[in-house]
């Protein structure tokens, strides 16, 4: 029996998972890049290490300060913000730091995550994006609600019951 198959049967091998040694090396590289104060942030997850590496040195230091102040943890989903920063770099980070108060609102945060550079580069207002997110949620729930109410169901149920009684009585009298 081959070793990978044996390990897979024992639950010790996943060929699609990143190598733990590589993940540790990335975290250590992020600490070297951002400085020793970044260790606490880096150990929160791989997203943090990748976000630090995607930023300039000053951006990485600002991200570490943002985390140390507790403001990062007050956002709805910090790992998602870190993923966005790892994909877009300093622009998204600096916008998030400057607009922390607004991003505490879940709808504004969702809008920002959807198109971070649109907001960071001033192409779109955060209020407008939040309104679009709210409208999308409302449309979703309206689409899921049935087009009839209990009053409509009762009305048509009564009509069908009366029609059924008339048909039953007509058949009974004709026999």
Protein traits:
disordered N terminus; mainly alpha; 12 helices; elongated; 175 residues
Outline the secondary-structure elements.
Layout: H1 3-9, H2 20-34, H3 39-42, H4 46-54, H5 57-68, H6 78-88, H7 90-98, H8 100-103, H9 106-114, H10 116-120, H11 126-144, H12 150-174
Could you characterize the architecture of this molecule?
The protein has 175 residues and is an all-alpha fold. The chain is built from 12 helices and no strands. It has helices at 3-9, 20-34, 39-42, 46-54, 57-68, 78-88, 90-98, 100-103, 106-114, 116-120, 126-144, 150-174. It is elongated and about 95 Å long. The N and C termini lie far apart (81 Å). Residues 3-11 have low confidence and may be disordered.
Question: What helical percentage do the residues reach?
Answer: over 70%
SSE string? HHHHHHHHHHHH
Shape: elongated
Strand content: under 5%
What's the main sheet like?
none
- Structural class of the helices, strands and pairings? mainly alpha
- What is the rounded distance between the termini? 81 Å
Weakly predicted, low-confidence segments = 3-11
Rounded mean pLDDT is 85
How many E-type strands? 0
Helical stretch count? 12
| Radius of gyration from CA coordinates | 28 Å
What is the chains' assembly state? single chain
